[in-house]
Amino acid sequence: MALDRRASAAGFLGAAVVLGVLATVVGVGDLLGALARARSGAVVAVFGAAGVWLLAWALALRTVLGALGAAVSPLRAAAVYAGVLFANNVTPFGQAGGEPVSALLIADVAGTDYETALAAVASADSLNLVPSTALGLVGVTYLSVTVAVGDRLRLATAAVVGLAVALPAGGYLGWRYRERVEAGAVGALAAAAGAVGRLLPRIEPPSRAAVAGRVGGFFEAVGVVGTDRRRLLVAVGLSATGWLAQATALWLALYAVGAAVPPAAVLVAVPVGAIAGVTPLPGGLGGIEAALVALLVPLAGVDAATAAAAVVIHRGGIYWLPTLLGGGVVAAVGADRV
Question: Which candidate, 15, 17, 83, places its Cα nearest to that of 331?
Fold first, then answer.
């Protein structure tokens, strides 16, 4: 599994700059002081909630793989998904950049072809968006009728409502015109492969027929997942469990630094903050932290230092824990292949 090390290094450098600016704006001394006062028991609970999230989404991926005829044990699914998160967290643009590498890992461990593995991880990531929007709408609705946040809630509301409209519309249009999408993908990939062949004469690019066969296999696998309603419902339920665990981890992180906030505030902050994961930073590192702090200050009614300290603890469980675990999985799989 070859990662673009230069792109990842540039991404981490950019993330370090963003985090440095954020710490400067918040106040390094105030941030360190808030972290020093954190309750150790609550911090441990944050990592426990992060573990529940990772397991729930791993089982959702296992459910999708089951729909495609690939049987994976729950323990192996958890290990594989940690590797998926590692790939997402060290490549720019988050899931969009990590999915091709994640598919290689899944194909290797689950014993499937690459197209099936890519369809599985893409389907699982798409399904994860459904409950995030629903939870965000619940949180926005609750805050709008119980807390006088005024204009400060408008941005979060617009983001959640925009997702609620764009996701189903995009999915419907993409599936309705899937033949056009498939044809466009074949043309683009064939052209890209030809360009690589011209730049690197030693590499023989695949023929257009070969590209069409692989793209067709991917869309066929996605279609199989979409028609298995029982497994779809199970996967969405597991995804919702994971989102609730993420929100719980953020609530516990705030509690750890002495802030008791309405649960609805974290139900809004977590899915809206995750939108920052599409930035050209590895796993959204830096962008998600800044977005969460900006959201928590008005929604949770806390100062910037308290919000930043809670986000540092929360991201320790949601970003750094799976990155370290997944790195070990990727290294083990690589060593096994050697």
Answer: 83
